[in-house]
Amino acid sequence: MDLNKAMVQRHMVRRYTDKPIPTEIVEKLNQYLKKTNEQYGLSIDLKINDTRAFTTIAKLLFAKGVRNFFIMAGQDRANLDEMLGYCGAGLMLYAQTLGLNTWWVGGTFNRKMMEKISSGNRVAGIIAVGYGQTQGVPHKSKTAEQVSSDINHMPPWFRKGIDAALLAPTALARQAFTINGSNNNVSILCNSGIFTGVDTGLVKYHFELGAGKENFEWI
Ligand SMILES: Cc1cc2nc3c(=O)[nH]c(=O)nc-3n(C[C@H](O)[C@H](O)[C@H](O)COP(=O)(O)O)c2cc1C
Predict the structure, then answer these.
(1) Is 107 in the pocket of ligand 1 (CB under 6 A)?
(2) 0.90 cut: is pTM over it?
(3) Most buried among 110, 153, 180, 209, using CB within 10 Å?
(4) Can you spell out the DSSP letters for 82-119?
(5) CATH number for the 144-218 domain, one of 2.60.40.1170, 3.40.109.30, 3.40.50.10320, 3.40.30.10?
(6) Could you tell me the distance, in angstroms and rounded to a whole number, from the CA of residue 59 to the centre of ligand 1?
(7) Which residue lies with its CA nearest to atom 10 of ligand 1?
(8) Which CATH architecture has domain 3-130?
(9) Parallel, antiparallel, or unpaired for β 101-105 and 45-47?
(10) How far apart are the CA of 199 and the centre of ligand 1, in A?
(11) How many A from CA of 157 to the centre of ligand 1?
(12) DSSP designation for 81
């Protein structure tokens, strides 16, 4: 499965089976993670067979069987959240190509515990990862026209980018972004409160995959 297919197949999964992630797949995730942390100066950790991501109440209510997770963290700095969103999108899609399911959690995880065990000093969220009880369902989506007023006078790569951006996970599935373009310049505006940075990064990664990085520049 390539990343473009993974974008279509990835959906939030909040309930997991107890099937362990095989060692060779954990190995692949760790290799990917090491590269990402080095390239972007992040401190994302992967925890395997660890049930500390949620409180007991959250586990009873909605977070079923989460045993593996990434702690999305780094050293506090400008645009850290956007970087984590961007790299998190890559991680989630890579995990999907390995047959795994994921779930970005920005609010309802056990923040105190995650901050204690993280190797970064700011935790933006976690990504639960494992074998889902289901594959999830597509989120309700806005249309391309609702998120871009330039959709009809831009080249085909731009629509492909917008279609991909609409597949990105966003906080509360709000898709609170607009993307516009002129020639080969593209800009994004996003307003989802405390999740603005993360949402921006997640959406940018998806847009790039759909549009092709070589076709445009972010301004
Ligand atoms: C920044 C961010 C924060 C999120 N926080 C939570 C959360 O606190 N609890 C939760 O159950 N889901 C959370 N989610 C998951 C979203 O609700 C989910 O990704 C969204 O509904 C879109 O669905 P999809 O992932 O299937 O595309 C969060 C997602 C993002 C991107």
Answers:
(1) yes
(2) yes
(3) 209
(4) HHHHHHHHHHHHHHHHTT-EEEEESSSS-HHHHHHH-S
(5) 3.40.109.30
(6) 16
(7) 105
(8) 3-Layer(aba) Sandwich (3.40)
(9) unpaired
(10) 10
(11) 27
(12) H
